[in-house]
Design a protein that fits this description.
Length: 346
């Protein structure tokens, strides 16, 4: 990760200390009071509501005060310039930090919504990121990032500092998910398989089983359910396939089509705290919500650029608080929603 190293004279250090003592940063307000959107529409009780979007550091950082202007004077850098270009993958640490991979810019954006800070991960050790796509966060806050450009998967600590590369031969790594035992499931698109790594990041097996009756065809994304079932976006079969932890096929969700419950370009997949399955479709410009039996419950969004609308969306992630993060790729933003299991916020 690129860091800024400062060399400041003692007098400037004293000024910085005095300025920082006066600075009070309030957490980012997640709900945009100017927008009131919920799904399904009235008179049905709402189950998902729109909170806000994030397009870059200007939406996260506090308004510039004396401290921010002083830091820019010292470092010569404006931290608000690197906006989201083409966000693809998104993940949360379960608290206040979200990560968004930016495939065209070769950057992973780290937004701390509570502390109102922004960090950019641009390299793994001495190796620059090329096309970062998949991202996942483990229970300790460590971050796993797949890079389709270098065909590698990297591990970083909770501060964004590089730890190591996962040893394994990938053709095109993509989505990543982590189960309750700390095992990492990494999609390898061109191998039509997933690679599984144990809690120590050692490769242990390919997934699903070689004798599966439902092989994958260019898989792209993966999610883990509460019972550790594995949900894989099977792109060229236009569905999400469900496997148990051993890699045995259980069921599928969806089929090719343009009607609700079907897919044209399925992308990200995620599972909420009640084991509902959320599947993004880039062509439909929405995400659809299913129960564990594969029954469609509702869909959210349409093609467009307004709140709750999408332009070729891709990744999706849901944290333990029911907040839904969607990479709205060609609207250059992350949209944030709230799952409401009882018709009200958690």
């Amino acid at each position: 990760m690129k860091r800024v190293h400062l060399t400041v004279k003692p007098l400037l250090c004293l000024m910085l200390l005095l300025l920082s003592a006066c600075a009070v940063t309030e957490p980012l307000v997640l709900r945009d009071p100017s927008v009131n959107l919920a799904w399904p529409p009235p008179p049905n009780p709402p189950r998902i509501s729109f909170l806000r979007d994030v397009k870059g550091p200007v939406d996260v950082l506090p308004e510039k005060g004396n401290l921010a202007r002083f830091m820019e004077f010292v470092t010569g850098e404006d931290t608000t310039k690197m906006v989201l270009n083409t966000p693809y993958g998104v993940a949360s640490n379960g608290d206040s930090i979200i990560y968004a991979t930016d495939i065209a810019a070769g950057v992973v954006h780290r937004y701390d919504l509570a502390k109102r800070t922004v960090v950019y991960i641009t390299q793994a050790g001495e190796e620059p990121l090329i096309r970062p796509g998949g991202v996942a966060v483990d229970q300790d806050g460590n971050v796993y990032i797949s890079d389709a450009g270098s065909a590698k998967v990297f591990k970083f600590d909770k501060n964004g500092d590089f730890i190591h590369e996962l040893a394994g031969q990938f053709q095109r790594p993509a989505g990543i998910a982590i189960n309750s035992r700390g095992e990492k499931f990494v999609v390898d698109v061109l191998a039509h398989k997933l690679k599984v790594f144990d809690v120590h990041d050692t490769f242990i097996r390919n997934f699903p089983r070689d004798d599966t009756r439902e092989p994958l065809n260019l898989p792209s994304n993966v999610a883990i359910g509460r019972n550790d079932d594995v949900y894989v976006t099977d792109s060229m079969n236009f569905m999400v396939k469900v496997f148990d932890q051993s890699g045995s096929y259980k069921s599928s969700i969806g089929e090719i089509g343009d009607a609700p419950g079907s897919f044209a370009r399925p992308k990200g997949v995620a599972v909420d705290t009640d084991d509902h399955i959320y599947i993004v479709d880039a062509s439909h410009g929405n995400f659809q919500v299913f129960n564990r039996d594969g029954k469609l419950l509702l869909f959210v969004g349409r093609n467009g650029a307004g709140p709750g609308e999408f332009s070729l969306p891709s990744g999706i992630s849901i944290d333990s608080k029911g907040r839904i993060f969607v990479a709205d790729t060609y609207n250059h933003r992350i949209q944030i929603f709230q799952y409401m299991p009882e018709g009200g916020p958690r």
